[in-house]
Amino acid sequence: MNVIARGDGSQPGPRRGRTWWEVQHPEGSQGTWRDLPALLADSLRLVWRAGRNVFLVTSVLQLLTAVGVAVQLFIGKEVLDTVLGAGSSVSFGELVPVLAALVGITVALDLAQAIQNEQSRVLGELVGRRALDRVLDVATRVDLLAFESPDFYDRLQRARAQGQYRSLQTVNGLLGIVGSSVTAVGIIIALAALQPLLLPFILIGYVPLWIVASLNTRDLYRFSREMTPNERQRNYLGNVLMSRNAAKEVRAFDLPALLRRRYDRLYDERIAELRSLARRRTARSLIGSVASSGVTVGTIGMLSWLYVTERMSLAATGAAVFGLYQLAGRLRGLHMSATSLYEATLFIRDYSSFLTLGDQIEEGTRPAPRGFERLTAEEVSFAYPDATRPAVDRVSLEIQRGEIVALVGENGSGKTTLAKMLAGLYRPESGRIFWDDTDLADVDADELRRSIAVIFQDFEKYLLPARENVGLGRRERIDDVDAIVEAALRADADQFLKTLPEGYETMLGREFSGGFDLSIGQWQRVALARAFFRDAPFVILDEPTAALDARAESRLFERMRELLEGRSVVLISHRFSSVRSADRIYVLHEGRIVEEGPHEELMERGGLYAELFALQARAYLDPDPAQTRAD
């Protein structure tokens, strides 16, 4: 996936593929009203692919309901004609057939409406699921560097929210438009047959409401888009205040009051903007309602004039009144559905825009190698968005099969970034990485990663059974219990995992029922077991013993060559004593390799490595610098 980030779109060196900045800000990304047909087409495709059968059933019911309402109008006129035409001499028996027809059509309409409501609920759930599935597909395929961009999180937040909620709104809007439109057309045809002079009043009366709805919807869209950063910050603060992991530190540092004030301030800002929005929308709605009511009064006046001047009979006038009442309801429904659909379409712009990121991901086409004799990085460079200097600057290194290579240096020297590049998680902005003679930029990234095992310092604690926590290292073998136990034994995790209440099937973490928590050191051993279970030819261990006690750390490093025999290992550690046995050590400083060689050779040179090693050794032997100076 060859998508690289640069905050300003500049190019520090030769590169291939599109930049993340270019993907984030494609030409025409702001959109105009001309985009609406395409966005509506996207919505229709989403609904069709999610549940075409349910959509067709619901649409047919809408059409049948529309025809039924028009029939109901004519049957009502027939009842009035029968009663008014015959006067007091009409018998109940003469009314039975038309009354039965009226009752039958009314019951059928109610039944159809009930079925529509339930089917719409099912369809909305299907569409919501498909919408979120597509967001998940993009979020799990997009370049890892995207997650370094606040803009990406804003777009992801909007896509998640709009994809699920607005998809249901789209479904209801589409079905409402279909049903209301067809029903309204049927009623209008019936009213035209009764009196064509009514039609201009009917149509003109809803023009003000359409204008108001359009303006109000655009206002709401702007508000929602501008509030996305505010909403993400509030959600983050809310999670910190309520999450289990943060609870101990929040209380220990007496942070609830401070964080609540910040949370409340953000919410106050949102509410203030919402009130301003509500005032504008209310004023517009009032103007539209007054204009529409004026036209309604004119329609009533027209009906009265037509009856008084005997241009319409009493039965026709009664049927027209009933028809206008029905039409008013259908036009209100059409108005609300169209407004809802228009609103959803505007918001779906964000959803559709996010999905385009998946189309712009460039995949390698060559098959990834299953192993290598030599991994080589040639003058690779990499910079994070908006960074003032490269995180990795023209680094070259070599790793032979079966070697243990260590990366050391002070914080911010580029060790973890370089490891991510070697793992294929970041692509170099310049330079190349080879497995033997294969350029990794040209191979399928997902296939490549099957040959790489990575455990980072901030490893994930999966709230899943212990067996699956280890088995996720090679998901296609997640049910191979014997291999999972073997990996746990190698990581010294079996001893405590098998003693859990349900052994390897015990849920880890307290968040779910039956869950059992581990110490941070035990969690790290589980993460190591996951890396061992992956059984990959290339292993990257980023601070693999940071949470282990001294005895466990010493045991792990003593067994490192035995545990990872035949595999190439990149080891990152701040503890210099842990890397002494590495075949080769690369010392990084400000993104560059400043020294390389085995431990003894680097100590003899007396450079940065020797200086840092001596400082750490003194700190370990005499942890009180003040006392050292006094002595």
Strand and helix layout:
Elements: E1 3-4, E2 18-19, H1 20-24, H2 36-86, H3 92-141, H4 150-194, H5 199-204, H6 207-226, H7 228-242, H8 244-252, H9 256-308, H10 314-359, E3 374-382, E4 392-400, E5 404-409, H11 415-422, E6 430-435, E7 438-439, H12 445-449, E8 452-455, H13 466-471, H14 481-490, H15 494-497, H16 520-534, E9 538-542, H17 550-558, H18 560-563, E10 568-572, E11 584-589, E12 592-597, H19 599-605, H20 608-621, H21 625-630
Parallel strand pairs: 1-2, 5-10, 5-11, 8-9, 9-10
Antiparallel strand pairs: 3-4, 3-6, 6-7, 11-12
Helix pairs in contact: 2-3, 2-4, 2-10, 3-4, 3-10, 4-10, 6-9, 6-10, 7-9, 14-16
Would you write up a description of this structure?
- This protein has 631 residues and is of the alpha/beta class.
- Among the domains are: 32-229 and 265-358, Up-down Bundle (ABC transporter transmembrane region fold); 452-535, Rossmann fold, CATH 3.40.50.
- It is 61% helix and 10% strand.
- It is built from 21 helices and 12 strands.
- It has helices at 20-24, 36-86, 92-141, 150-194, 199-204, 207-226, 228-242, 244-252, 256-308, 314-359, 415-422, 445-449, 466-471, 481-490, 494-497, 520-534, 550-558, 560-563, 599-605, 608-621, 625-630, and strands at 3-4, 18-19, 374-382, 392-400, 404-409, 430-435, 438-439, 452-455, 538-542, 568-572, 584-589, 592-597.
- The strands form 3 sheets. A 6-stranded mixed beta sheet has the order 8-9-10-5-11-12, with helices on both faces.
- A hairpin with a 2-residue loop joins strand 6 and strand 7 (438-439).
- Helix 3 packs antiparallel against helix 4.
- It is elongated, with a radius of gyration of 35 Å.
- It starts with a strand and ends with a helix.
- The model is unreliable at 1-32 and 625-631 (pLDDT under 50).
